Amino acid sequence: MVTQFSYFVLFVKSYFAKEEGQDLIEYALIAGLLALAAVAGLMAMSGTLETMWLNLSGALGTAAAGG
Asked: What is the dihedral of CA 53, 54, 55, 60, to 10 degrees?
């Protein structure tokens, strides 16, 4: 009985000590965090980018009109 219990304890310890999928999960979390940061950064810059494109459009329109 003691040996069966010992084998069971060793099995449980080895089951929870496995780290096979840990790297994949860590990389997935890092990729998700980077994607979230990229979206947040683009949203923060959207007003500035819109203003820049509007200014460029106006300048090109003026230049095309010969002004």
From this structure: 90
Q: What region, left, alpha or beta, does residue 18 occupy, with left being phi > 0 and alpha being psi -120 to 50 degrees?
A: beta
Is the per-residue pLDDT at 31 higher than 90? Answer: yes
State the Cα–Cα distance between residues 52 and 67, nearest whole angstrom: 20
Report the alpha-carbon distance of residue 63 to residue 56 in Å, rounded: 10
Give just the sign of the alpha carbon dihedral 50, 52, 57, 62.
Answer: positive
Q: What is the pTM of this model?
A: 0.49
